[in-house]
Amino acid sequence: xxxxxxxxxxxxxxxxxxxxxxxxxxxxxxxxxxxxxxxxxxxxxxxxxxxxxxxxxxxxxxxxxxxxxxxxxxxxxxxxxxxxxxxxxxxxxxxxxxxxxxxxxxxxxxxxxxxxxxxxxxxxxxxxxxxxxxxxxxxxxxxxxxxxxxxxxxxxxxxxxxxxxxxxxxxxxxxxxxxxxxxxxxxxxxxxxxxxxxxxxxxxxxxxxxxxxxxxxxxxxxxxxxxxxxxxxxxxxxxxxxxxxxxxxxxxxxxxxxxxxxxxxxxxxxxxxxxxxxxxxxxxxxxxxxxxxxxxxxxxxxxxxxxxxxxxxxxxxxxxxxxxxxxxxxxxxxxxxxxxxxxxxxxxxxxxxxxxxxxxxxxxxxxxxxxxxxxxxxxxxxxxxxxxxxxxxxxx
Amino acid sequence: xxxxxxxxxxxxxxxxxxxxxxxxxxxxxxxxxxxxxxxxxxxxxxxxxxxxxxxxxxxxxxxxxxxxxxxxxxxxxxxxxxxxxxxxxxxxxxxxxxxxxxxxxxxxxxxxxxxxxxxxxxxxxxxxxxxxxxxxxxxxxxxxxxxxxxxxxxxxxxxxxxxxxxxxxxxxxxxxxxxxxxxxxxxxxxxxxxxxxxxxxxxxxxxxxxxxxxxxxxxxxxxxxxxxxxxxxxxxxxxxxxxxxxxxxxxxxxxxxxxxxxxxxxxxxxxxxxxxxxxxxxxxxxxxxxxxxxxxxxxxxxxxxxxxxxxxxxxxxxxxxxxxxxxxxxxxxxxxxxxxxxxxxxxxxxxxxxxxxxxxxxxxxxxxxxxxxxxxx
Lengths: 396, 377
Fold this sequence. Notes:
The structure holds 2 protein chains of 2 kinds. Chain A contains 8 helices and 31 strands. Chain A is of the alpha/beta class.
């Protein structure tokens, strides 16, 4: 017997994240490191538990090893439950067919059996590649209050950027009458955040119908939402006011990391009422050496800092040797910046070793773009990596 | 071969009475993010001991809170895991049924739990054993020599204050114990000091405890070891790694600051491969340094927010250092808050202490200032 759950969350974590290049070479995008001790997926997972949702299906597909290992039994997020908890849902072989997830809607369709075991009234669909803190329970309350069939979380974006998003056109109550994917001439500035709450039975109907349509691309934004609108379903927006960032590109990943810095950061992690949980590595506290200088930076466990670090985000186990100078950069776990090396405006992948006296990138104002060093690289001493370049493990 | 562990959580509480007023010795914070019990617990787990019995005495709320289900040490197990053994007091007790005072009395009171252990060997540890040790080395040595009891010792140079709270062993070249001096009041100099890590077979400890009950023995050193030297096969295991004895507040301070000044100790304690030290996970955000931060030669835990100057200091999780504040040679426990323009030198603040704007406190190396838990200055 399965215990009934009011709401089950389905987290789409199969994204390849090809615009993160070498960072997602062997890792799914949701497992990319962020903010020192986190991975991107920690944010939606922590939001779920903080919102009282204790049943989360994580749909994986692309390079799932690191992600699966990271999620494990869900214990760091308090999602190791007797009923419910976190469940990793990879594509599987069925009796009649076996298939990769063809689209976001198809991924949920293939796991309807998982959802229906808990007989939930509502299904929350999330994506695993956004950085934000949100109370899904407030959204669920709004959904119930409006007696909606579907509720879509939206963010106000500047009009000139609206054409990059899926835009919801609504009446005064927030009821959606039109959805436009990346409109050339946007009529509103309410951008979809890719967070949906559906009434479970209605969602199941639409997913099954969509699956029978061979012309469909099996996508929520392209197929399911327009079909529901066409049929006159009650669909509402839920306005979100707060920090939200899609970290799909190198520059947005870099920016989101930088948004944690400053005396009044755009995104606050030191918030005890809404903790972000992550898997812990049992590393010692970080050590700051005699000649170190750390300004406007985030440092976490296992780091050893002997050099100068300014405007950086350092993940666990990073070593900055004596005389090294690191500025405006995101350094991922266990990377080592050699003696006297100079690193500017870069993202350094995890485990990468930068040899002594190397120069990576240029100061931010002079650089043509972000420099990316792939995870696991080993740079010889005195290597020069020009600004705006990407160095991959295989080429080197 | 399998082994179970027994940890004494209160055995030397009085050594650092300031810090143990509200907690067990086991839950005294140490090393920037740990509690003392993390060391014996992690040593056991890293040595494959997953059945751990923790003997408590009094004041053990903070310990229970720290341990939780034991999951952070991977000890939330169906088979074995952590078992907390509070003092056993019979329902029909009268005033004769006082709390135990010695190690042997504690073992006598958990006799029932001991008889339920099914592992072949038992490893006993104290909570003030700050080291990173592979217990299998001692167990294997114990088995190889067919010993009745093996006690880990370290050759050290002791001050009279340190000697007074330790057991010193004399052994021959074969490693057999020939003499024991417990808590000598007139000794200083070089000696083999007990780490209070003791290995026995289950059979031996069961017999020893039953014997002690029958004869009303109270002291392990005097009544068990002392009486049987020469008859039983009691041996020392010579350990030469890092080991800190905390015999006083001053010792506590010195050994803490040693972690900053001695990289080798830090590496041995925290970075020995495959032997990490585990602790309760608190999910604090990473430490945040502002533009005004100036930190040198310090250990900083997650959750800290640093706006001022920090030198030769240890900041536990969630410490806030205000603007233009200077913290030197100090240890600030979890969630200490210092306002702006504060100056601290040789100060130890307990948990949740608040230091108001502009306050200056200065102790000395030989006399650090201690600010009790939750105080506001």
